[in-house]
Amino acid sequence: MLRSAPPLLGIQIRQPEWNVALCTFLMYAIPVRVLDFLWAFLLSQVPLKEDAIRPFEFLVVHVVLACACAITAQAALSRCNAVWLLFASWLIVVSIPAWLPTWFCWMLIVVPPACSAAFVALRRQTS
Asked: Which residues constitute the domain of residue 68?
């Protein structure tokens, strides 16, 4: 069973789909993860605040900027799939080492792909 999984995945996901996935990660996941590194660096510069829980305002700005990155990725790629954005969002949440509130994790996973899908629907209506 393990030997048959890679060929089946290769059949199911074709080369252009991998290009879309790679571009989605480059245009969405990496900037959002770098933003998290920025927040961690900013909080580490405040005395006695290292590894502190991020303030509410930081989390809201993080979600808004993640939505902006998702919409930018959607606008740049004609075939950017919300499923790849959802997967990238999940990887971002899993890779953040700090403790994060549950509401923020769910918002970071669900809201940017939803904004991207809304952008696609709005673009289809106007054209």
From this structure: 5-126
Domain count for the chain:
1
The CA-atom distances, in angstroms, between 75 and each of 15, 24, 48, 82, 121 are: 21, 11, 41, 12, 12
Q: How far apart are CA 31 and CA 67, in angstroms?
A: 11
| pTM for this model (two decimals) | 0.74
Element (H, E) at 95: helix 82-95
- Per-residue pLDDT of 71-124, as tens digits, reads 888 877 766 677 778 888 888 888 887 777 888 888 888 898 888 888 888 888
Nearest to 90 by CA among 16, 12, 33: 33
